[in-house]
Amino acid sequence: MTLLAALFSHYRRHPLQLLALATMIVLATMLWTGVHHLTSQARASLDQSESAVAERQQVTRADGEPVSVRDFVALRRAGLCVMPWLEVASPGAGRIVGVDPLAAACFDRSAKDNEPWRGELDGAPFVDISEAAGLAIGQKGQKDSQGVLSLLLSGPDSGSALPSGYRIAPFTVGPDTGELGESFLLNLDALGMLVLLISALLLRSVYLLGLAQRRDSFALLHRFGVPGRQINRLLLLEIMVLALVCIVPGVWLGRWLATGLGSGFGRALEGLFDTPLYAGQDGGWLVPVATMLAVVLVACLADVLRPLARRLSVAGRGQSLLPALVLLAGIALSVWASALAWLFVAVAMVFVAAGILAPFLIARLADWRAGGEEDPLSRWRHRELSVLARRLALPLVALQFAMAMVLAVQALVTTFESTFDQWLVQRLEADYYIEVPEGADASLAVDWLSGQQELAAGLWHRVIRGQATLMNSVGESGPVVDVFALGPIGPLVTGWQLFESVGAPWQSLAEGQGLMVNEQLARRQGVTVGDTLSLKLGHKAIDFPVLAVYPDYGRPAGEILIPASALPTDFETGFQSLSISPGTLSMETVTSGLKQIWDVEQLTVRDNRAIESLASAIFDQTFLLTRAMTVLTLILAAIALLLMGWVFFSTRAWYFRLLVVWGLPRRQAATQLTRLSLSLTSAIALLALPLGVWLTWILVHRINPLAFGWSLPMAVYPRFWLELGVLSVLVGLSIAVLMRRQLNSPASAPESASALSGGER
Amino acid sequence: MKRLFWLVLLPVLAGCPEQQEPAGFAGLAGVADPEAEVPFLQPGPGDRLSFPADFGPHPQHRIEWWYLTANLETAEGDPLGLQWTQFRQAIKPRLADAVPPDSGGWPLEAAWMAHAAVSFNGQHYFAEKLARGDVGHAGANAEPPAVWLDDWQLSELSGNGTWRLQVSADNWSYDLSLQINGEPVAHGDQGFSAKSASGEGSMYFSLVDIQIEGTVTLGDRTLAVSGKGWFDREWSSQFLKTGQQGWDWFALHLESGDKLMAFQLREEGGAFRSGTWIPARGEPVALTPGQLRMTPISGPDSYPRQWQLEVPDYGVSLKVSAPAGDYRNTGLYPYWESPVAVSGSHSGVGYMELTGYGN
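The joint structure predicted for all components is written out below.
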C-alpha cells in the first residue's frame, strides 16, 4: 500500500494532469465510439437492405398485364411461395412499400434477419399491405401514382412449378445507389481510423509528459529497493484502472452522440436507399471497450512504440534522412499503386514520415532563423520554439493530422456534394419518368409524343436499356457493357458535363457518328476520345468512334450512350422508359394518352423533382454529420494541444520569468510568449496544409477510382484553409493568455531539468 | 377442446387499430368488447349447433378451427399419426351475412394459420402456413365443405360424404380420402362446451368415426396408409379464463368401439375438467368435472407423456402413453401433439395435445 501510495502521490500533487489524462481518454473514447457505432450500424443496415432487394425474382403475367390479387391467389393455391409487394408513392411519406408478413412466412427462414419486412412494420418504408393499398386507393384520380403490385418469388426452390400463363422476371428496387453508400461508408471508416490514430497520439503525449515528471519519484523508489519491473507492473495497473474507469463513460457518451446524430443519419440513408439503413439497434460494448483499452495501453505503455516515440522526440538530432525517404517512397507509391491495399500502405508511410518530419522541420527552421538573428530576444524566441517543437512533438503531430484530416474530409464532402448535385440535376433533367409496360410498343408512344404540339421539342426522350458485348481488335468477344440508348437527343441531355469530348459531341451523337462511354468503361478499357469501339449490339459487330467520356457515379458497370436510331433491329431490349418534361401540357394528358395507346390500366410514373429534392436533402443531412464528426476531432486535437501547451509552458515558466528578472518589461515578455506560441501553432497549421491536400487527392483521385471505378473532381477550398488558420491562431493565443497569467503569479523554484524529460535550456 | 393458438401474428400485424392484446395462452383469454358496433359473439349455454352452416366460418367469433387427427397404419402394420389443423383468428368481427371486404384492398380483418404433422417411427414432421383472410388463398366453406390455405386443402370429393385432404410440405406430403360416418357429436350442453366454472367456453362438435385411406410421402418414400380419424370443429370469442395456463386434451378410440374425449384446463390450484363419453351404442354423454380424473404420470414441468385417465361411472381406467420421440409442433406457439396408445381397462389408440408447458 505504501508503495502504491508513493507511486500515485504524483497525481495528488498534479491533479490537473490526472484530470487531463482522464478527460483525454473519455473524449477520445467518445469520439471513436461515436464514429464506430455509426459506421458499423450503417454498414450492417446497408448489407441488410441490399440483401433485401438484391437478387430477387418476381412472377409476372406472360401476357404483359399487371399482376393482381387474383394472380397472387392463383399462384399461392398452386403451391408457389410468392409475396405481394405493393409500392405506393405517398405525397407525405415518400415511397411506401406494402408487404404481407403472413404471406412472407414461406420465405426462407434462414434469411429472417436480413428481411426488413419481417418483424414490426413501422412504416419506414415497409407497412402492412392493407395500409399501402389504402394509400393507393386514396390517390386514385389524383395522379397516376397508385400502387404498383409485384409478386416476389421466395427463391429458386419456391415450391411447385410455375403455372402456365406466368413467367419469372428479375426484381429490383429503385436505382442502384449501393456504391454511393459504400463510398460514403469507406470515408467514414477512414475517418474512424484517423480518429483512433489521433487519439492514440494525444493520449501518448499527455501520458509521457506525466511520466517524465515522475522520473525522479521512480528513481527514488528504485533507490529504496523497489525493482524497476515492479514499478512497471504498477504503472500498467494504474493505466488499466484509469483506462477502464474513463473508457466506460466514454463509450456511453459515444453511443449517446451516435444516437443523437444517428436519428438524422438513419433518415438520411433510409431516404436515399429506400430501405431502413440505420438499424439503430444496440451495438455491443465489447468492441469499443477492448479497442480503446488496447489503444490506451499501446499508446501509453507499449515498448514497441518506444523507438517511434523516441524518434518523434529526438528527430531534431539529425535523423531525418530515413523519414524523408519514407515520405518520398510513400508519395511515389500513392501515385503508382494499383491496389487499394498498397494505397493504404502509402497513406500510412506518408503520415508516419510527415509526423516525424513536421516537428523536426519546425525545430530546424527555428534553429536556422535563430542563427541568423542579431536581436538576442528573437534568437531566444527561435531557440525556444525549436525546443518546444521537439518537446511537444506528439500533440503537434496529432493536431497536424487532425487538421489534415479535416481539410481532406471537408474537401471531399464539399466536392462530393456539388458533384452529386450536378449529376442528379443532369440525370433527373426531365420532370417525369415513365416505365414502358412490358409488351407495350414504345414506338407508338414516340409517335404520339411527336404529335403533341404543346410538348416542346426535345423535352422528352425514349430510353432503351440493354447490353452489348465489347469486341477486341481480333474480333473476339470481350466484356459485356450496359447500353443506354436515347432518342431523340435533345436539351434533356445536352447539358451533361463531359470529362472529355470531340467538338459538338451531342450533335455528332444525334447524327449517329459515334457513341459516348462512361468513366468506368473508359478507365477499365483505357478508352479515350477518338478511339473506336467495336460492339456487338445484335448479331453483328459495329464500329463506333468514341465521342466523349461522361461521369457516371454510383455503380461500377461500364456503359455506352448511343442514339436509339443506331440500335440494330435485332438488339435485345431489356427495359424501356420515357423521360418527359411536359411543359404546358398536363401530365394527366400525357399519362392518359399513353395509357390509351398502350391499352393499359396503370403506368409507373416517377416524379423526378420529388426524387431530386429528397436526394439533395438527404445528402445535406449526411454531409452535415460527416462535418460534425471531423469538427469534433479537430476540437479534441485543439484542446489537447492547448492542454499540453499550457502544461509544458508551465514547466518552463521559471525560465520565462527570467526574461523579466533580466530586465525585460513584463508586457514585452508576454508579447514574446504570444509570438512564441503563435509561431508554434501556425507552423503546424501550415505543415498540415500540404498533408491535407495530398490526402484529399488520395481519396478522390486514387482510392475512389480503385474502389468504385469512378473519380471525383479534385477541388481545394482556400477559405476553409483560412478558417483552420484562424483556429490555430486561437489555440496559440489561448496558450499565450494562460502563460501571461503564469508570468504574473509569484515565481517558484525551477523544477529540475531532468524532471522535464530532457534538460534543454 | 382443441387447440388454438392465436395467433400471434400479432407482432407483425402491428398498427391495426382493432388489434387486441393477447391474453392467456396464445391470446385465448381475450375478452369480447360488447360495446363495439359489431361485437364479437361469445357462445353461451343455450346456443345450438346448425348444420351444415357450422362447417363454415363464423366471422363474428374471434377464434375457430378445423382439426383432424388420425391414427393410421402402413401396409406393414406400423403405426403412423397424422394431424391437420386450420385456424382462423378474426381481428375485426363481421356479421355472418355481411359482404366481405374487397380483396383488392388486401384487407386485414382475419388471419389464418394451418398446421400439418406426421408422426412415424419416432420422427415428427411438422409444417406451418400463414395467410390473411378475405384475399382468397385461405378460407373455408360450409356447403360443400372445404377448407384451404394455399395448396393445402380439405374438400369434398363427391356428395357421398367422402372428403379429400391434401398437404404438401418441404420434403413430405400426404393425400388422404376420408369417409365420414355417423352424425356430428355435440360436446357439452348440446354443443356449448364450458371451459371454466365461470362460463367461458366454445361451441364444439366432432366427427368421431372417419375411415381414412391414402398415401403419406416422407422424403422419397411413399407409404400406403389406412386407419381412423377424429375431426373437431370449435369456435368462440373467449376460450380461456384469465389465469388458465394451458390444457391437456385427449381423443381416444377404444377397441370396444367406445370413444372418449377428455380435457382439462390447468389453473392455479387445480384444473377445470370436461369430456364426452361416446359409447359404441347409445347417445354420447357429457362428463361433468366430478366424473373425470386426469393424472399426469410423468411431469409436471415438461410435457407429461403418460397419463392416467379415469371415468369411474363407466368403468374406465386408462393408461395413455405417447411413443418415444419428440412430438412438439414448433411453430409460432410450440405445443405437443402426438398419437397415443391406450391400455388399462380398455385398449385403443388416440391423440393427445398438451399446451402451456413452455418449450
